Amino acid sequence: MVDGEQRSTTRPLRPAAPPDGGAGPVPRPRRDTATGPAADPKAGPADATAEPADPKPGDATAEPAGAEAGRRRRVPFAHAVRMPPRQLAAGAARATRAWSRRPSGRTALPGLFLLALIAATAAAGALLVPAAVRKPQPVAVDATTNAPVQGVPQAGVVPGATGGPVDPGATGLPGTVGPTGTATPGGTPTGPAASPGVPGRPADALAGWAQKVSATTRIPTVALQAYGYAELVLAQTNRSCQLSWTTLAAIGYVESRHGSYNGAVLRPDGVAAPEILGAPLDGQGGRSRILDTDRGQLDHDPVYDKALGPMQFIPSTWQEIGADADNDGVKNPHDIDDAALAAGRYLCQGGRNMTIAGDWWGAILSYNDVRRYAQDVFDKADEYGRLSGT
Membrane-spanning regions, if any (predicted)? Predict the structure, then answer.
C-alpha cells in the first residue's frame, strides 16, 4: 500500500526455451540421483532428455556408475597432510633457509633465536633456583639442647595460654606490668650509661645495680652488667624497641647458663674462659647442618660451623651483627658484653617493639626457631622480672 493505492507487481516467468534466433544451450536440468543420471552436458537442445552415453576410458569428467553425487572438491594443498614427516621437515627447513636469506629473515631470525634462548634460560631457572636456595639458618643455636624445629606460635598469642590474643603488655610479655596496664622494661638499671670514649669496661658503671639484682636472681654480676648495659645502649640508639635486660638474661641462661656452659667461667672483663663452642652443626642428633662459613677462624672447625660464646652465635651471623660493647677494639663473640649487645641489636631489627607480644615472640623465634626454646626464654625472662621486683 503506497499513497493509498494498492499496487501489485507480477514478475514474468522465465521462458523454458530461448527466444527465436537465440543462441546458446538450454539450462541443464538438475541431476536426479533417485530416478537416474543427468543428461550429457555435451548434448544439444534437441536431446536434452536423451540418455547419456557410456563414459569413455580416460575421460576426466566421467564418473563410475552408482558413484555418490556431490563428491567434495579436492583442496590443492590437501596432499601435504599425507606427506611423510621426514619430507615435511625437509620442506620446512628449505622454506626457513630461504626466508632467512631475505632481508626480513636476516633481521628477525636473530631476535627469534634470542627470544628462544631467554625462554630456555627462564625455564631452567625455574627448576634449578628453588633447589639451590638454602634453607634459612638460625641466628644462634641452643647449646643445652638438640631439640628439632617445631611449630611457630601465632603472633600475639602466648604459648600455653587458654584465651585468645593477649593485650600487648598485659600478660603476653615477660617482665612487669606498669600501673597503667602497659608493659615496662623490667628492671631498668639505675647506673649511668658510659660514653664510648670512657676507658675500661663501660658496663662496670652498673656494678652497684648488678650486685643488688644478682642477690635475688642468682645471675653472675659480670653477666648482669652486660645485659643491663646493652639495654641502656639500645634505649639510646633504638628507643622504639624497648628491649628489657630480662629478655637478654633469659637468652643467656638458656644458651650457656650465663657463660658457664662446659665448665667455662666469665672473667672480670666479661670474656668466657675457656671459649664456649657448641657441637659441630653436622645435621646429627637433631642439630642443623651448616657447612663452614668462617674457614675455621672463629670456631676452629674448617668443615662445619659451631655456635660461639655465651649467646651461642653462628659464625656467619656474628660476622654480620657482631658488636664491640667494651671499647677494646675487638668484636669478640666470647665476650659477654659484645655478645649481649649484638643479641639485642638483632632482636630489635625490622622495627620490632619488644613490648608487643607478636614482636617479642617473632624476635625470639628468629633467634632460634624452636618452640620449646622460645617458651623456655619466656619463662626465664618472666621469672627474672618477678625476682628482681622491677
Answer: 107-129
CA 124 remoteness from chain centre: 17
Alpha-carbon span 309 to 222, nearest angstrom: 15
State the sign of the Cα–Cα–Cα–Cα dihedral 235, 237, 240, 245.
negative
Q: pLDDT (tens digit, 0 to 9) for every residue of the chain, 390 residues total? A: 454 555 555 555 555 555 555 555 555 656 555 444 444 444 444 444 444 445 444 444 444 544 455 566 655 555 555 667 777 778 877 887 787 777 776 677 777 777 888 887 777 666 654 444 444 455 665 444 443 333 334 444 332 232 222 332 333 344 433 322 333 333 444 333 444 444 579 999 999 999 999 999 999 999 999 999 999 999 999 999 999 999 999 999 999 999 999 899 999 999 999 999 999 999 998 888 999 999 999 999 999 999 999 999 999 999 999 999 999 999 999 999 999 999 999 999 999 999 999 999 999 999 999 999 999 999 999 999 999 986
Angstrom distance (rounded) from CA 311 to CA 227:
11
Helix, strand, coil percent content, the chain, rounded in steps of 5 = 40, 5, 55
- CA pair distance 383, 389, nearest whole angstrom: 10
C-alpha cell at 147: 631439640
Q: 337-353 in b/e burial notation, b at 16+ Cβ within 10 A?
A: bbbbbbbbbbbbeeebb
For the chain, what are the domain ranges?
Answer: 90-132, 176-388
Within 155-313, strands assigned E span 176-177, 183-184, 265-266, 272-273
Burial code of 143-178, b = ≥16 C-beta within 10 A, e = fewer?
bbeeeeeeeebeebbbeeeeeeebebbeebbbbbee
Cα distance between residue 30 and residue 306, in whole Å: 99
Length of the chain in residues, anyone? 390
**Other C-beta atoms within 10 Å of 229: how many?**
29
- C-beta separation of 308 from 315 below 8 A: yes
Q: CA of 254: how far to CAs of 94, 307, 346, in Å?
A: 75, 14, 17
